Amino acid sequence: MNKKTNESIKQAVDLLIDNDTDVNTILKEGGLLKELTKRLIEKALQSEMNNHLGYDKYSRADNDNARNGITSKKLISEHGAVEIEVPRDRHNTFEPVILPKRQKRFDGFDDKVLSLYAKGMSISDIKIQLQELYSVEISEGLISQITDDVIDEVKAWQSRPLEEIYPIVFFDCLVVKVRQDKRIINKAVYVALGIDLFGKKDILGLWISENEGAKFWLGNFTEMENRGLKDILIACSDNLTGMSEAIEAVYPKTEHQLCIVHQIRNSLKYVSYKDRKQLSSDLKPIYTAVTEEQAHLALVSFEEKWNKQYPQIAKSWYNNWDNLMIFLGYPESIRKVIYTTNSVESVNSQLRKVTNNKRVFPNDNAVFKSLYLTIDYMTKKWTIMDYAHSKLE
């Protein structure tokens, strides 16, 4: 937007203010914003027609083509439904750029639909919401069409090239309810969150399955390898069935760190509410220790205090000890990424909002669409934050 345009807009706004125009008159349904949208589009269409014919309205034509009246077209905009008068030409060769012939929705409408869908709203709920926003009847078929168009984006995203190296990749699981064969069943959605060489987060992929296992994970790791991922320093996950074998097959140099976040979560699963705060505090010296020896002493101390009430907790740490302590072989900056919950939990909380709101998904595609849209909005925020940080440095 150039300086002249900015000045023109400022003058128009000043004119409204000077005339004591009521804000409600501008913003209400059928108000000035809606009328302004209509006039601007129609003005642009007339300019396009002038350019198409080669002469202005009411001027003499240099060819046998001429204006041939108008066609009324209903356009759904962010200010509601707007009736637009689209000029026609005698030869029917006018193809407007600002408002293509088959376009019925203005920029921003589809984004609004996808934004509501990403929040876990059903098609029928979105229809009601749009009717309240735009005072126009939107069919459920149109809403479904807009959301279905995302599937191609999902496929492109799931097959996009990855970085060659991710120092850390977290694998986590969400359980969703899906309709299948006239039944509602639980399915697991696995999310891979990578931390790249610059410390930036990137969600590498989503996979949905009723059952996990070596074959399932082998397919996922092979897929990531085919997308360009050559090496993972640390793969961090819960004790998922078949995960270790799949890592060994595709990335033999990768160390499989059992996720501290999951270990803590599992440790607290059966702890009474009154003990949870103190027990959590007593676990912390184990995973924040500087050396494995210090961590072991902290576990012994924890066992002496809590083993009588909760014997399964210390036993679980001992059983998984080798894979839990891998991160202690790395610098403090990498350790913190592994044992703090920030990266994983921030992603999980956003995705779980969607799955909790949706309750039951009609099919697997609906799961992918909803989670992909949420991920897309999340990663855009990450990009903005990364840019802001780079400017502050």
TrEMBL record:
What are the entry keywords? DNA recombination, DNA-binding, Transposable element, Transposition
GO molecular function, a single term: transposase activity
- Pfam families, sorted: Transposase_mut
Q: InterPro entries from the xrefs?
A: Transposase_mutator (IPR001207)
A single GO BP: DNA transposition
Q: Which domain of life is it from?
A: Bacteria
Say which family it is in.
Answer: Belongs to the transposase mutator family.
Q: Which NCBIfam families match?
A: transpos_IS256
Summarize the protein's role: Required for the transposition of the insertion element.
Q: What is this protein called?
A: Mutator family transposase
